[in-house]
Write a structure and sequence with these properties.
Pfam families: RibD_C. The structure is a single chain. This protein has five helices and nine strands. The protein has about 200 residues and is α/β, with parallel strands linked by helices. It has a single domain, classed as Dihydrofolate Reductase, subunit A, CATH 3.40.430. Strands 1, 2, 3, 4, 5, 6, 7, 8 and 9 form a nine-stranded mixed β-sheet that branches. Strand 8 and strand 9 form a beta hairpin. The radius of gyration is 17 Å and the shape is globular. The N and C termini lie far apart (about 45 Å). The relative contact order is 0.24.
């Protein structure tokens, strides 16, 4: 059975996915809203993230997200965050980068330059690879439809700037909703899609 590539993104209503977790996460472009997700505590999002961890057997990350994870999670394997920290520490981590990342975090390796070939290899080796954050990498995966599930947790906030999931110039693509939307206590909405080829057009009349 071929493994699954799952993309997990926290976004705003206007599609911004940059730096939801904290001010220093990704300040590029003089982004002033780092940590925008923190005040919006939604029980549904927490439950859904926990459920995704049950089947996750590998992480695929862009360079910036990998560096953030590598600096944080190995030191948080006990306490309330322990289950996440231990999982991330245990499973293989794959880094998509044109540079030379520090791969000292156990189980880490760098992907080769042929993204499509590397994704095919990961599908053969794992059952459920999750891409978390990593907006630049996600845009490449979306453009080439190298994913199976795109989960968006859309939060009730508009920022007006920042890196978007689908920026201007994104490759046209059709998506198929694979389960009903779910809303949470703080107004976040979960949308889960699969790729569906290219868009088509018609006449509403």
């Amino acid at each position: 059975m071929t493994g699954r590539i799952s993309i997990d993104l926290f976004t705003t209503l206007d599609g911004v996915a940059q730096a939801p977790g904290g001010p220093e996460e990704d300040p590029s472009g003089a982004f002033p809203w780092g940590g925008w997700q923190a005040p919006i505590r939604d029980d549904m999002v927490g439950r859904s993230v926990d459920q995704g961890m049950q089947t996750m057997d590998a992480l695929l990350l862009g360079r910036r997200t990998y560096d953030i994870f590598a600096a944080y999670w190995p030191h948080h394997t006990t306490g309330p965050e322990g289950p996440i920290g231990r999982l991330f520490d245990r499973i293989p981590k794959y880094v998509a980068s044109r540079g030379t990342p520090d791969l000292s975090w156990q189980g880490s390796s760098q992907l080769g330059p042929d993204l499509a070939a590397e994704i095919a290899r990961l599908r053969e080796q794992h059952q459920d690879v999750h891409v978390i954050g990593s907006v630049g990498l996600v845009q490449s995966l979306l453009a080439e439809q190298l994913f199976d599930v795109l989960t968006l947790w859309v939060h009730p906030v508009v920022l007006g700037q920042g890196k978007k999931v689908f920026p201007d110039g994104a490759v046209p693509a059709a998506l198929r909703l694979v389960e009903p939307p779910i809303s949470g206590s703080a107004g976040a909405v979960q949308l889960r899609y699969a790729p569906a080829g290219v868009p088509t057009t018609g006449d509403m009349t």
